Amino acid sequence: MFLFAGSLDCDDLSSGLAGLLAVTAPFYFMRTVPGFYDTDIFNVLFPLMVVHSLYLSVRRDDWRWSTVSAMLITLYSTAWNGWQILYYVLLVSCGIFILRYRDRNILLFLLITTALIELTDPGRIPSLIRGIPLMASGAAGQLFPEILNTGSSTMTGAFPSPYANITELQPPGFAEIITGTGPGLLIAGIMGLEPLRRLRGDDGFLFMTVMIWLVAGLVCLSGGLRFIEVLIAPPLCNIRPFLQ
Fold this sequence. Notes:
With 244 residues, this protein is an all-alpha fold. It has helices spanning 2-9, 12-23, 26-31, 40-59, 63-77, 83-101, 104-120, 124-143, 145-148, 162-165, 174-181, 183-191, 193-197, 204-220, 233-236, 239-243. The chain is globular. Residues 16-236 form the Oligosaccharyl transferase STT3 N-terminal domain. Keywords: Membrane, Transmembrane, Transmembrane helix.
């Protein structure tokens, strides 16, 4: 995928380094055992393909890339439940971008995506809308259990709590986040934010999406260590600005 991206909108060094950092991220690498098929590859590959295609539609002012991006996220929605996170992220970033720049390609992406997902599984989009308050309250309960009087105390009972005994369901600490994503990816991602921020106009769409994506990933970490994979993809978008 990164070789494909390199041929379109990036140099070989940036795309090669991004691909290397993606497949060697410790949490992703340990869960992707050679010889065994798993859905972990979808957590990184599909979001990057969707965001990259959508970015090309904005930068090149080409509605066809919006259609490709919409088809990719629809396919992603049939593969793994993590597509909801990406949908929320793009819904926010695209909404802001449409209000600011009146971009028709982004609006087309949202319309096609919503229509295709609803056609493949009727009722899925309304359930996402209804789930926003529940998701927000659940995340707030995990982040501020003392204030809201929720969190781990609501997860215990007569039986052993899986949230206390299963490592992947426990929120990670800072050291675990660094270990899971890899220091190289973390450094490149952070240092690439500033040059990415200086981009204006159409290129600013990528920075806004990456920032919202990172915030969403950090919030998801309150649900357990397994959501570290959500944080692997956004820094990969910063590799080219980091090298430049």
